[in-house]
Amino acid sequence: MKYNLFKKIVHLIFMRPIEFLVDYLAFMNNSRKQRDARFGYAIKKIKLCLRDKTLSTSYDRHYIYHTAWAARLVSRIKPLLHVDISSSLYFSSIVSAFVPIEFYDYRPVRLGLSGLNDFHADLSSLPFSNESIHSLSCMHVIEHIGLGRYGDPIDSIGDLKAAAEITRVLAIGGSLIIVVPVGRPNIVFNAHRIYSYSQVIAMFKGLELVEFSLVPDDPYDGGLIENADINIVSSQNYGCGLFHFNKNKK
Fold it and tell me: How much is the pTM?
């Protein structure tokens, strides 16, 4: 494994620049032969993209699968309005094509898309009344709260406060989509926390779990495992836990 990694590094450092030069000269020669004068060519305009010549397209498994899972879930729920707190902008921008979205973030963003309104919010004190949000998501966010990574105040239990706020504002009968890293419990300061399955359930006590799905560490174990066996979680280092909760009547 280490030897393969070493070979990849050597190839990137030494061979890829040579491949780039060969491709550049071939392109310039081809351009002259075809008399393609549409663009001017200048050395200062060259940009070396040396990491993209791969046999397959790479992607972040967490962010591809969890946003796809959540979008499908929202499309099934069909809320009149969906509120998202600080999840991937790709999720909110795409879902806003078929469901109106209110997007809230500690660091406000201005997108200017129809069906999408954006606002500032602090997860430790959300600007909503009790039990007022019927469709809510907060994905790959809670694990960061209180670690200072995004300019938020240092707070070792900031994630617990955020979970309590989310539970507070979720309406009776409402739907909540939560995504966090799962596996062996750990904290990687100041990046993120990794939770056990039971820790996530405890953070949202009082809510009913409708579905638990998982993006496992190893792609050979599957891409998105829907309705996953919770016993798999303890063997993960940095799995992606996908939780769908409801708040039932008291």
Answer: 0.87
